[in-house]
Amino acid sequence: MQPSAAPDLADLAHTHARPAHWLATATATAAVVALAGLLQPGPAGAGTVPAAAPRPAAAPDAAEVSYPLECGGVPHTVAKRVSGDLDGDGNPETVAVVHCEAGSGTPPSGVYVLTRGRGSGAPARVVATLVAPEQHRNVTELAVRDGAVRATLLGYSSPDVPSCCPDEKEQVSWRWQGGAFVRGDRADALGV
Question: What pLDDT score does 188 carry?
């Protein structure tokens, strides 16, 4: 038999494990693991921070708007106001019930939709008239639900009915469709 050309493994220094060898190996392994952890890509989607969604603008203030209402020199009163996103743009509109101040009687109401103009600091403005004062209606209930304006209107069956005592009651709704407010049927208005 021929002697092996390889040295005897028992004579090699690294085959004799000593505590210093184990400590050096453990330290090197820990360093490699830590470095690999630092160099790993983050979880999916990491690396880019999503931009914060823009905050919706505040609802228009009904007290700061000029209304298309002729009050014959007396001031007007904002009797009711509600807000909600009516056109789906993420910003709220305000619906205001406005009438002329009167010492007595029941002045007719106007129902107006307000929005803010484009750009920061743009003033609020009337963009739609849902009920004109000339229709001789009063609003007893007003709400915005599910993107629709809902109201209860009181009116008169004839000019002979005294203005103190409306004899008609109607529940109505309006929804933004095709660039305009469309009046809905009675079933859509229920639940005011």
Answer: 46
